[in-house]
Each structure stands twice: as C-alpha cells, then as structure tokens.
Amino acid sequence: MLVDYRKLDTWVHRLNPKVSMLVVLFVIVASIVWTNVLFLAALTLVLYLVGVSCRFPWKQIAWFLKFALFASILILIIQAFTIDQSLIETEWIRETVLFYVLPNHKGAVMLGGLLYGLAASLKIYMVVFAIAILGYSVPPTEFVRGLGKLPFASKQLTFIFSTAWRFIPIIRGQALNLMNAQKTRGMELEKGKLGEKLKKMMRIVTPLLSNSLEIGSDIALTMEARGFGATKKSKFVRPGKTSPGAIVACVAVLLLIAALIYTSALGIGVM
After folding, report:
1. Cα 271 to Cα 186: distance, rounded to the nearest angstrom
2. How far apart are CA 249 and CA 264, in angstroms?
3. Angle at alpha carbon of residue 257, lines to 262 and 45, rounded to 5°
4. Three-state DSSP class for 26?
5. Do the beta carbons of residue 120 and residue 73 sit within 8 Å?
6. Which residues 6+ apart lie within 8 Å of 6 measured at CB?
7. Residues 133-178: pLDDT tens digits?
8. Which of 143, 89, 97 shows the shortest CA–CA distance to 267?
9. Cβ-count burial of 59 within 10 angstroms (0-12 exposed, 13-18 middle, 19+ buried)?
C-alpha cells in the first residue's frame, strides 16, 4: 500500500473491512465505466473529503501525486491530438475543435480529446485515493484473512502475501535509516553525475541486501520451528465475524455497483 495502516478512532477506521473493500471495488468499477468528467470529478472530491475526515496523511503520497500530475499532463496532450472519436458519444463534444496549432487547419486540438484526457487523469487520482485510504484504514490482517478464505488461495500464497505486506515497510524503513546515516557522515546522495550517484547508492544497497537476507533467514527458521505446512488451512487468532449491519451495508454497496453498471449502459456518466 502507498500508506501504512494507522489505528485511529475515525468513522472510516470503524467501518467493517468488507464494506471498505467493496467501496474500493465500486470506485474501480466507476473508473472503468464512467468517462464523464463531472461524474469523475465529483467522486474524486468525495474521496478527498473522506481522506480529510479520517486524517489521511496526504504528504506521504505527495511524491506519487507529483508523478501522476506529470502523467496527467502527458495524457492530456496526447489525447487532445489523437483522440478516437468513437470513444465519445456526445456529438457536439466529439466535433468541437478548440484551435489549430499549425496553419491551414492542421494539428487540431479537439475538445473531446482534452475532456477524455482529463477523465483518464481523474481516474488515476480516484483509484489512488481509494486504495491509499483503504490501506490506511484497514488492518493488514483483514486483507490476509479475506485472502485466506478464498477457495483458490493456498496457505503458501496467503503467507507470501502477508509476509510481503509486512516485509516491504521494514525494508523501506531500513533504507531510510541507512540514507540518513550516510547523510550524517557527509555524503550528498543527490549531487554528482549518474555514475557517482550509483556508487553512493551501493553503500546503501549492500547493507540493505545483507539485512534482507538475515531477516529472510530468521523467518525461515521461525516457520520451521512452528511447523508451517503441517495443516492445510490457515488459522487466525481472532475469527472474522460480520455483523448484520455490515451485511446490509455490503449488500447495499453491491446493489450500487450493479446500478452503476446498468446506468452506464444507458449512457449516464458517459461522455
């Protein structure tokens, strides 16, 4: 996840994890079937307000948002000149030319292309917001428990997923500690040519790889000591229970997803 889970007392954190996951599924489906900029912008704004209400740390994903902004500008430029007219159903949007970049009416910048590129950019932000808030508000154990209950998910797959979920933040934290340690010794990681930067990064990669191998060895010994693989089914300390209210909420979200697909087939939310 883009942001680690934090245990807080907000209404988003108090939601049943199954409901939160279904809401994210609703957002993903909406990003697929909707092309109308107004619909996408409204849902993106709602997700932002949800993040504000649960004290989401936006600064932690600022680097990704900057990258997404660059990708959005690139998408806008490409779609403005190369839009497939069959993707736009509204006639006046499809045929409107904003201006020409070349003389003799060449290099037309289409309104439909700009709006379609803007819609594609909003889809990126929309899905990123939803997934980031999900990881921030739902404990990793709930994801592992849900994966373990799937009929096609083996115990080994569940273990790999849960270990990677826990292992990646540890490696990231160690990398930051090593970088800070090198900076305190006077190393300037951001300066120098590409070859010099690579040499400097080797002083971080080498101990990081060594620490990773040591952690992997400890995990392997722990698995063997606990008899991993002796039983086929995964066991959890706290069995997952779903309240009647959560079941109703899950059904409501599923109905919303069905209504979303049906209305989009009728042209609602489609540009």
Report:
1. 55
2. 22
3. 110
4. helix
5. no
6. 136
7. 988 888 877 777 766 666 656 666 667 767 776 777 777 778 888 8
8. 89
9. exposed
